[in-house]
């Protein structure tokens, strides 16, 4: 199906199309949700993207949405539209299991802020998307819910940690999905599955949720919330189209000041008179790009130029290289106090991945980085944020690979210490952005050897619309990528 063909079944509608059809009465939410549930029944047994499905609850919510429309009540922008939520995010009445059997009974009493925003916009919740244990890996498998497959190639990762979200979108189970990102967990799965993902500026979408408690030998204790999670992690949408991602992001923008880095809602600004320049950063000099990655970049460059963007290439960007290196210091040192708990209740995959990841970080920073090194890392982060904002402003975007490799083979991160280190090096575009907290989107630009290939667009702080405008220009010139499933 290309960008201009019309869908024949409700589940094929985009979120924007579905919301409009429900609003004007040409489609009911019940019809749409039932169609999506039929699609879940047809494809989820193969890809295993969604867990904790409660069809009757989803249909009841859809019927209530139809009743409200018939009664002439005020409708939200996602009224009656199905959306999935991630297993690590609080949704009232559902377990925030994090893919861990020991947490399977931790039913949330309250929605996380981003979920509350979706509920307030009228969305109908349909399933919980799978992720790795503790959402730690770039793969989506755990002992509680099993392995999620990439619908394009089952031997390749669907991405992580929001792999279930991306796979469910690519196969048409829902038109929208909620995810979160501290090391590519929105952007990378979207790229692996050929859909769109946007990581917003830190603070734009609230990261607030109830504290997580675990039972330990010393009693019930609150799970440590690392500083990098507070300062670098974000909530955001994955979608099948840029327009859908834009709509969902506007809905999820939540000025919830319980979030320690949350910001008040910002007024929308008019677009600049001319498109921003696009600076292409193909590499930071640490690892060569696979030919398929180069093809994706070349296609995006051509399409942006056709759309009127001034595109220029640079030979690396040192601040991105430094930010990617800082990721392996700040993230892992922040995660270190949590390791005993994760090793005690996590699965074998995360334990092995942790061991190899810490070994890779030690090769960069030593076995036990000093407090002075850690503090200096945060200081450098602040300086780099200022440098990048000065470079970008509203006048410039960056275009990078998503990764130096196509989607990884399943479980590549636990194949060997050497392969794990190679993955971390390849993922420099996924690591640099969270450390700096800037908005970034991944959008498909080519199909190479049967796999979707995407690029990443990075904008100035709170310039999500400019990032999405450029992503739209790429999408408009790229046939819609739909796996044959």
Number of domains: 1
Rg over alpha carbons? 21 Å
What is the CATH third-level topology name?
Amidase signature (AS) enzymes
The largest β sheet comes out as:
11 strands, mixed
General form: globular
CATH class wording: Alpha Beta
User: If you average the pLDDT, what whole number results?
Assistant: 95
| Distance between the ends | 13 Å
CATH architecture name: Alpha-Beta Complex
Q: What is the topology, as strand order, of the major beta sheet? A: 1-3-2-6-10-7-14-15-13-11-12
Approximately what portion of the residues adopt beta-strand conformation?
A: 15-25%
Binned, the helix content reads: 40-55%
CATH superfamily: Amidase signature (AS) domain
Instruction: Specify the structural class.
Output: alpha/beta
Strand tally is 15
Low-confidence stretches: 1-6
Tally of helical segments: 16
